[in-house]
Amino acid sequence: MTTTRTTIGTRVAVVAPNVVALVALAVTGALLAPRLPARIATHFGADGRADGSGSPWPFFWVTLAVCAASAVTVVLALRARDRRTGALLVLVAALLGPIVAAAWIVIAVLARSGSERFEPWWTLLFLAVGVVAAAISVPPLWRSAAPVPARESRPLDVGPEARVAWRSHVGSPWFAVLGLVLVVLGAATAVWTATTSAGSAVVAGAAVVVAGLALLWLARVEVTVDRRGLRVTSAWTRIPVMRVPLDRIDSCGWEQVSPGQWGGWGYRISGRGIAYVTRSGPGIVVRLRGGGARVVTVDDAERGAAALGALLERTPA
Question: Spelled out in words, what is the top-level CATH class assigned to the domain 151-314?
Answer without folding.
Answer: mainly beta
